[in-house]
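Box 3.1 A note on notation
Throughout this textbook, protein chains are presented in two layers. The first layer is the amino acid sequence; the second is a token string describing backbone geometry. Keep the layers aligned when reading.
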Amino acid sequence: MTQRIAVLTGDVIDSRKIQDRQRLYALLDQTLAGLAARHGGRSERFRGDGFQLALPGAAAAMEVAITLRAALIEHSEADQRWDARVAVAVGPASWPGNGRLATADSEPFVRSGHDLDALSEGSSHLSLALLDEMDDGSLALLTRYLDDMVASWSRYSAEVVRLSLESETSQQAMADHLGIRQPSVHKRLRAARWPLLADTLTYLNERLAEKDKRR
């Protein structure tokens, strides 16, 4: 049965320079599994630092991509920033079932892989392709905006963004969880430009879900 899915294909930037790769792989496995479970999707890590995540719907695709990158940045080593390139492709496809994602050959999987190759050759770390509708340029612009925003995050800003995306909680509750004061949480969210990020992701969620609702 064909349905509209989102496929995220990615790899960790400069992973060969990371000393504790086992910690990296454990973090990737945990983060991918958590995102897949939360959104009813499937995930797979391959060739060490490569990964794919398939979602049975498009709405949360960009939010998931940002959450994944935030988790990596949050857990960066003291002398090296962790981050990932993530290529998102949305379109109709047969759900992969229990087969390996790495062998799936429907169009969203193929396009996502091709776009990741293109990211590897440039300076951008995030892309979005819609296979079943035309983009007037606004989504590409917003994707560039999100990518630029993430690039400026510290580990501390990435941590509070991830927590904010994973659960609706107050700044005070977040401060209690982190063992810091509420003004410090506010400062970190402001540094991450959280209000603009949240509004942008809300718009993208609604925009990507429009065609799902029409099906």
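Helices lie at 21-39, 61-74, 107-120, 138-151, 155-166, 171-178, 182-191, 194-214. The chain has eight helices and five strands.
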